[in-house]
Amino acid sequence: MSKIVRLISKNCNNITPESVEEYVHAGGFEGLKKAFTQDPTEIIAEIKTAKLLGRGGAAYPAGAKWEHLLHIPEFPKYIVCNADEGEPGTFKDKLLLSQDPLGVIEGMIIAGYVFNSNDGYIYIRGEYAAIQRSFQKAIDHAIESGYLGNNILGTKFDFHIHIVTGAGAYVCGENSALLNSIEGKAGRPRIKPPHLAEVGLFSMPTLVNNVESFANIPLIVQMGGEKYLSYGTKDSGGTKLVCLSGHVAKRGVYEIPFGVTLRDIIYDPQIGGGIANNKKLKFFHLGGQSGPCGIPEQLDTPYCYKALRSVGLSVGSGAVVVVDESVCIIDYLKGVTEFFIHESCGKCTPCREGNWQMYKILRKFQEGVAVQEDFHVMKRLTDTMTNASFCGLGQSAAVALTSCLKYFRDEFEAHIQKQCPADHCFIGRERGE
């Protein structure tokens, strides 16, 4: 099995991103042309066969989501692309948005055709200001060339894509909070049910998929579900864009087939190239800040949804943050918790207050003043946050901490004795106290 493939990333750095002519020359819009010859049920059947799982992090089966929306009778229906990529260590959508925007646009147009929708929205994070401008150029060029707008390719099908920008709120990556933000409301999650397929944007049925998910749609339509599935495993179809960062030799975005191992991703010369500066791997953080941390003993686990889940790990957003032996586990978790404190919308108490309390406890460990009772307090806090938080942000905020407590309990214990393996804790000592 080849450890790197170029399916959805084949155009990246190979064509002028906003050029319809170059995109078409590279095989672009062939999926759309084929889709126009098919019934919507046929397209959804191919997506189900492909076993495309949502690439934004939740891994919900795309085919099932599309089929559900298809059978909802209310109109109009809206197509929404979630490009609010705000999780540290995750930057794969940025690659597609900046280097192959027309691939994302084509996927959205196909979705519009399937659901007889005339309007699509792409919600791009505020920090991607330059990308918003280039994406708008790609939209304009697609309209000029007849692939977007009114009477697409001489048909009676109209579809328009509108760019909406966020203000940098990570919580708007949650689909219902994203829709609230598009509507001009506070970016806070909604109560579900009703589900977004039934009551979504402007209270109408809505499809929300990730950038990478939409980019896969033209490929699936063009090559067929069986062929697409063959690139991955029987449970995880196709390929995945992974974002390598941290103490890895070759940081960047790589497209890999599902089934390669974590060891391949981090150490293969074509991909990560091993740990920088010849240091040892301490742990890796998968799927973004809300994902679990893994240890070297898990490196031979295949990178696919089922295999990772079986050992307590997850694909998530595709982030792989590599951490070497020089890092203090308390210091790292403190940074993760600070992120969630900053990004919590404040709607619910378990998330709003739980993260602050967790931060205070981690700071006690960092300063060497924690006691054994703090382990019990952390357990109560993580249970409460996981089970009682309103949305996925609070529910997953303690995942990294929980996994690190499982594998690095001895390092927590050492901090109680004022012993930090990385030797850069204890604020009191730094003050000369």
Q: What does this entry look like structurally?
A:
With 433 residues, this protein is α/β, with parallel strands linked by helices. The chain folds into three domains: 20-230, Rossmann fold (3-Layer(aba) Sandwich), CATH 3.40.50; 239-324, Roll (Ubiquitin-like (UB roll)), CATH 3.10.20.600; 329-430, Up-down Bundle (de novo design (two linked rop proteins)), CATH 1.20.1440. It is 43% helix and 12% strand. The chain contains 19 helices and nine strands. The strands form two sheets. A five-stranded mixed β-sheet has the order 6-5-9-7-8. The chain has a four-stranded parallel β-sheet with strand order 3-2-1-4, with helices on both faces. A hairpin with a 6-residue loop joins β7 (281-286) and β8. α6 (101-114) packs across α9. The longest helix has 19 residues, at 349-367. It starts with 19 loop residues before the first helix and ends with a helix. The mean pLDDT is 94.
Tally of discrete structural domains: 3
CATH architecture verdict of the largest domain: 3-Layer(aba) Sandwich
Average pLDDT, to the nearest integer? 94
Number of separate helices: 19
Task: List key phrases describing it.
de novo design (two linked rop proteins), four-stranded parallel sheet, five-stranded mixed sheet, alpha/beta, 19 helices, 433 residues, Ubiquitin-like (UB roll), globular, 3 domains
